[in-house]
Batch of 3 targets.
Target 1
Amino acid sequence: MSKSDTTEPGADDRALVRRAKAGDSEAYGNLVARHERRIYSLAWRILQHEQDAEDVTQETFLSALEGLKGFREEASFGTWLARIATHAALKIIRKRQGLDLVSLDAGERTAAAEAVPHPEFIADWKQSPERLVQHNENRRVIEAALAQLAEKHRLVFILRDVEGLAVKETAAVLGLTEANVKVRLLRARLQLREQLTRAFGDARTRLAPHTHEPGENA
């Protein structure tokens, strides 16, 4: 193992990017090997389809290679790849649905219209979904819970909490306002927490859901 292989991943990425920009194909191959699995996982979570995820992964690295000289390195190479992959995946979603990107926002409804639901199942549970999803344990349960989210909520959760994009970056990638991103993220977290609580929570600490009287404000 070379000395560069033992360095912090982000720093090593920067060194490989510089070499790849100078025409070193082996350096770019190392970048692909380092990030390929993560980009495939991102594409699969968005699209829920193996072949589409493979196509997005291939397109992502081809697009990155073509645009490498223009990569300004203001964000990490991994974040840049995630943006490319997300845009490629959104193209497939648009093609599936016959929609343009803005329609993923259902006409850019206001954040206030995205009412946050009261959970139906509440129990003591120590870990938040955005932290639990980072761990490999119980991956099948977590992936199944993610798949049950509405697409618009799943996309925001994946980009913000799984990929670590900032709210501003997530908004830019999805063509949303930052307010919409924040509300959708909250909805996604609450829905995931409720689903995962059923699997991981202590049922003995379950609380009855709050019910509204007629005319009571939501």
Target 2
Amino acid sequence: MIAGLALVAVAVVAVVVASGSDEDPSARWWDRIPKSALAPTPGQTAQVDQSHVPLEPEKSQAKAVQGPYSLRIPRIGVDAPVVAIQSNEDRVLDPPRDPGLAGWWSDGAAPGAQEGSAVVVGHTVHAGGGGVFDDMGDLRGGDTIEVEGADEVMTYEVESVDVISKDVFARDAGQILAQDGPGRLVVITCDDWDGSVWRSNIVAVAFPV
């Protein structure tokens, strides 16, 4: 496992992180999240394996997977299935273990919702490529992201792409993943590999057009 960690980038998103008092609204923001059932999800009959350590890219089965959504990001060549995932008992959201899949946090807003963040996470592979979000750092404001569901294609326009340290992400998680405010798409992966760990996250925020 340690050898594998030296070769891949992982997108580990702390859904609940920073400490705070009960008076701090961001400290208990997750209590306002509507809980949706994970299974059965149309087009996805079993819970997807999740891990902060991805499967070897050559073993990816993404091309054979049908999720509730498909994600297309023309700027960086993404055309991938999106599968439903959930946070674990520690409120950490690991992406799908298969690096060719993107994972939609099914306890948050759904893509196309009029309110709240629809959160999508996925792996970046450090050496050799093969991660769904390898090139997310090349996204720019104004780029489009398409999410296709069973009945429609939702088009989003990227408003911001930020590289955020893990500490800053923890501090601002309540705002980044907020389930109030206008509907938006938040796409997250890891960045800033220092040879042993990922020090940052790339966070792209997009709004429907």
Target 3
Amino acid sequence: MIRSALAEAAVETGDAVLAHSSLSSFGRVGGGADAVIDALVDAVGREGTVMVPTHTWDKINLDNPVFDVRETPSCVGAITNVLRQRARARRSLHPTHSCAGIGPEIERYLAGHETDLTPCGPHSPYARLMELGGKIAFLGTGLACNTTLHALEEFACVPYLFDGFHELYSVDYDGCKIHVPSIRHSRGFSRRFGELGPLMEKAGIIRRAKCGNASIEVVDARGMKAVFAPLVAKDRFYLLAGEIARRARHWYEARPKPHRGPKRA
């Protein structure tokens, strides 16, 4: 049932898919989280790659600065915690916004994530998904949790995104502790990610299906970048929610401008 819904939403053999998920949205699922993961793996086949976000921003901070890739639990759902513990799974080493996945291309997406100073930088799985033409699946979550759009915010240097520099650390699969200085994302601004479906439909970059009580939505990541990167570059507050966007624009336009001194002759 889940497998057929994924096929209807255009998840195909050989795809690289980043899946955001809510197990409870499906209702009762025989096999639980493992059944959903198995359906994703089956849908992309032996040549495909399945990833999930395994974020830890809720617990890794200045007071608790060490992320252990093997042990630190994800804060974004049961499916993500089951997948990251599978025998063949690998997980990126970013201390707050890691991804975990399975498949022959997984290292291509995860390697070097910890070298980015920011959560969704050029070496992140989110940026690589858009670069390499992967897909983003939303399994019962809606579009509001689209982490990959944060990568577009980073590319556009939006002025509201970051909230402080933290000295963090990651422990890798060999038990080695790595220094990962990180600029954290601010959590104080509401986004309009969940409202972008109609524009995605108009651009032909989203497919939908139903599975029990859950809606499945699958977005072409490269197409999403092509649609939204120019809009965010033109208006750096484009992805903020209505009144928040209006107030942020007003603040940005009214802020004191830096004094550059007299022009030289």
